[in-house]
Amino acid sequence: MTDSYARYTRLKFDRPHPRVLRVTMENGRMNTTDAALHAELGEIWRDVDRDASVNAVILTGAGRVFSAGGDFAIIQENIDEFAARARQWKEARDIVYNLINCSKPVVSAMRGVAVGAGLVCGLLADISIAAKDCRIIDGHTRLGVAAGDHAAILWPLLCGLAKAKYYLLLCDQVLGGEAERIGLISLAVDDSELDAKAVEVATRLAEGAQSAIRWTKYALNNWLRAMGPTFDTSLALEFLGFTGPEVKEGLASHREKRKPSFPPNSPV
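Given the sequence above, the corresponding structure tokens read:
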């Protein structure tokens, strides 16, 4: 493993194939996105892009969970501090654009629950694979902020505007099997088959014609680049929401494990 990966504290690395780098989110707390993981999910794609020894990447989560969403501390920081909002806005932008622009194909292997910044990478992966019972949840409007991150540019393209609005506005979960049916992910498999299938797909990519695969990814991702203004707007509105009253109630309800009681009226 090259020295460029030694600085990561929330991402672990191994090689299931000589040309495949497996990146595992791991923080001991259901792989929630804390400040360190949030920053690392933006940086890793640049390092992967520069690493000539890597032809394909697998992204997964340690244990029985892919990623359980944003750590409460990072959400509280966004509410309280302008500097934190500005920093995390930039990191959120980097997560999306750096993954889109990474020349190497990325395969995600999602199980348990997939929420937050982890889900951003899981769905933006070039080939997304989930266990049939994996719970995919965008989660933004339940927290009290706009569905920023990847949602506005990606979900309508994958599953259509009607389904995207249904799941993003209501924050209903989508199980892996249903996510495959509506086109939100590439493939759903039994949990017992997930890791082997991800390695199989990544190995095929790693052993394929590299310039052809990378150039195909580049061209296809122009669909996402063309939606850059929509992404930038959604992300800006998400972070504007961290200054308002709804996210405070949303966070409190998560901490207290109750249904939120949002203000009935909005100045918007």
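The longest strand covers residues 11-17. Try to locate this feature in the token string yourself.
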